[in-house]
């Protein structure tokens, strides 16, 4: 377990103290507790619970936000990983950016409502033949996962919402200990405008170029590991566009934040391969190119689940 310096702890506290409070805090806590309770008392024993984060956080530039800075992430990785975790028997808390890819929707067209349905007459709506299998599978799989209590979806938009929700989830999962996992695939802002120094109204565009000073968002991995959920299995991600520095950066993150593994990926090749960097060495995980339907997450989640099983066994000895 890592320990954090007083300085980092102060930066983290001041980030949360100055954040606008979550509007639906109570509702989220209730949902989380019910979900954890349900999955801790299943017939056949407790289920493992993973929090998958997905999509990019936004940084508002105005309190009544018109403009914002965004972090790139389509949400594909998080959504596909969620499906694989459910298949592997996990219950998943899917913390995702509103409007990004959702689990079980991979085979739907990008603009599903416009392309999937047709009106044979004014009173009826039906799924277009070419999409009927994809829609049927998406609806059935998603409904089954929710009905079995294996999928809880919680949306965020801003960095403020994301980090407050991550803290709520981590605190709620603390009791689950080694059977819980964090799989942090979201692209999280590194810079932000502190709420108190942010202008309330839309920034005027008539007064020339805009100067904004962005503060650094404290890295939350350290406090997640040391205080929020120290016994949870923790996987973080490292995204780079320059493959030459990717593994070095991932290795540094592994050592600095004492996570159990870092999934290193390069922007252009992220759908073909990733490297799982951990203290037991680096493993390249690829999509099975002989199977057109194969995705890198099939093999990645298999490896992560194996590592998690070993971690649980070792925690009990
Ligand atoms: O969504 P897709 O289009 O499918 O793409 C997937 C992906 C490329 C977004 C994903 O695989 C990925 O790499 N996600 C992490 C990208 C990222 O933000 O990396 P980073 O180097 O900025 O952050 C590294 C880690 O630190 C992350 O696990 C993040 O959760 C954590 N972090 C970041 C900022 C911060 N203030 N606190 C943090 O704890």
From TrEMBL:
Residues 48-95, 169-287 form the DNA/pantothenate metabolism flavoprotein C-terminal domain. GO terms for molecular function: phosphopantothenate--cysteine ligase activity. It comes from the Eukaryota. Keywords: Coenzyme A biosynthesis, Ligase. The keyword rRNA processing does not apply. Pathway: Cofactor biosynthesis; coenzyme A biosynthesis; CoA from (R)-pantothenate: step 2/5. GO terms for biological process: coenzyme A biosynthetic process. Belongs to the PPC synthetase family. PANTHER family: CORNICHON-RELATED. This is DNA/pantothenate metabolism flavoprotein C-terminal.
């Amino acid at each position: 377990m890592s320990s954090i310096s007083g300085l980092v702890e102060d930066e983290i506290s001041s980030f949360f103290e100055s954040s606008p409070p979550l509007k639906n805090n109570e509702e989220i806590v209730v949902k989380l507790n019910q979900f954890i309770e349900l999955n801790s008392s299943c017939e056949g024993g407790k289920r493992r619970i993973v929090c998958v984060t997905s999509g990019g956080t936004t940084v508002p530039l105005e309190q009544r936000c018109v403009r914002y800075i965004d972090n790139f992430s389509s949400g594909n990785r998080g959504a596909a990983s969620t499906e694989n975790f459910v298949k592997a028997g996990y219950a998943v808390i899917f913390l995702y950016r509103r409007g990004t890819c959702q689990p079980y929707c991979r085979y739907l067209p990008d603009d599903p409502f416009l392309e999937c349905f047709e009106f044979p007459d004014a009173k009826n709506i039906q799924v277009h033949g070419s999409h009927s299998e994809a829609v049927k599978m998406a609806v059935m799989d998603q409904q089954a996962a929710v009905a079995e209590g294996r999928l809880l979806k919680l949306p965020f938009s801003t960095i403020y919402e994301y980090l407050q929700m991550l803290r709520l989830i981590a605190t709620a999962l603390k009791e689950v200990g080694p059977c819980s996992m964090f799989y942090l695939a979201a692209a999280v802002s590194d810079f932000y405008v502190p709420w108190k120094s942010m202008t309330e109204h839309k920034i005027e565009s008539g007064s020339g170029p805009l100067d904004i000073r962005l503060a650094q968002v404290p890295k939350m991995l350290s406090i997640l590991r040391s205080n929020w959920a120290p016994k949870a299995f923790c996987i973080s991600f490292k995204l780079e566009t320059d493959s030459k520095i990717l593994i070095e950066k991932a290795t540094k993150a592994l050592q600095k934040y004492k996570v159990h593994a870092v999934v290193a990926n390069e922007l252009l090749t992220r759908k073909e391969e990733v490297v799982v960097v951990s203290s037991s060495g680096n493993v390249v995980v690829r999509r099975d190119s002989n199977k057109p339907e194969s995705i890198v997450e099939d093999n990645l989640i298999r490896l992560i689940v194996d590592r998690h099983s070993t971690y649980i066994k070792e925690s009990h000895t």
